[in-house]
Design brief:
Largest interface: A-B, 27 and 30 residues
Number of helices of chain A: 0
Largest sheet of chain B: 7 strands, mixed
Structural class of chain A: mainly beta
Order of helices and strands of chain B: EEEEEEEEEEE
Shape of chain A: globular
Number of strands of chain A: 11
Radius of gyration of chain A: 13 Å
Shape of chain B: globular
Number of strands of chain B: 11
Largest sheet of chain A: 6 strands, mixed
Oligomer: heterodimer
Structural class of chain B: mainly beta
Radius of gyration of chain B: 14 Å
Helix content of chain B: under 10%
Order of helices and strands of chain A: EEEEEEEEEEE
């Protein structure tokens, strides 16, 4: 079953602009992860934020987590055409061998 | 990061035949692997959890007799789609968590298998 929702479902921006994607989830979590998927390919892990963290950075990526609102956001700064992909958030209830539950994803198009 | 290899990447089969998809963890032992299914422009839906040396746990609505999962070793899980029908055409992705420490938290994904049943 899917954990939550992402919005927007689709986002189209110009190269150089920032892209913000949001994710909401329903249950308590141990951590939240963001993944990227190019069309018809596997998933690439972008960043993981733990439930006791509020913000995390990795290169042009910035992730926030608000456990009181059960929501997270992914910001991609200075976007590039190569950032065009689908982005999914995924939650894990614990750090053990439980599956990740994925949101519906945001399809990002960056226009050169 | 750790590597999970999935094979084949694409397969076309005739209705009624069976197709086996392999998922291997190349540099760590994965006691648990997960199989997901993804329809076009949709998200990943968990099908089953594969446990080494024991029976897989299937999600509600997933037919265990149709999607046979075998996890015979700590580095290999297989998904067999039996008596495939066109509606089974989809993108199948495996995932593994394991290796101890931080690796138990991050999930590693195979490249996916595009199955087309004609």
């Amino acid at each position: 079953s899917q954990q939550g929702e992402e919005d927007p479902q689709a986002l189209s921006i110009q190269e150089g602009e920032n892209a913000t994607m949001n994710c909401s989830y329903k249950t308590s979590i141990n951590n939240l992860q963001w993944y990227r998927q190019n069309s018809g390919r596997g998933l690439v892990h972008l960043i993981l934020i733990r439930s006791n963290e509020r913000e995390k950075h990795s290169g042009r990526l910035r992730v926030t987590l608000d456990t009181s609102k059960k929501s997270s956001s992914l910001l991609i700064t200075a976007s590039r055409a190569a950032d065009t992909a689908s982005y999914f958030c995924a939650t894990a209830r614990n750090s053990g061998n439980t599956p990740l539950v994925f949101g519906k994803g945001t399809r990002l198009s960056v226009i050169a | 990061g750790a590597v999970v290899s999935q094979h084949p990447s694409r397969v076309i089969c005739k209705s009624g035949t069976s197709v086996k998809i392999e998922c291997r963890s190349l540099d760590f032992q994965a006691t648990t692997m997960f199989w997901y299914r993804q329809f076009p422009k949709q998200s990943l839906m968990l099908m089953a959890t594969s446990n080494e040396g024991s029976k897989a746990t299937y999600e509600q609505g997933v037919e265990k007799d149709k999607f046979l999962i075998n996890h015979a070793s700590l580095t290999l899980s297989t998904l067999t789609v039996t008596s495939a029908h066109p509606e089974d055409s989809s993108f199948y992705i495996c995932s593994a968590r394991g290796g101890g420490g931080e690796r138990n938290t991050e999930a590693f994904f195979g490249q996916g298998t595009r199955l087309t049943v004609v």
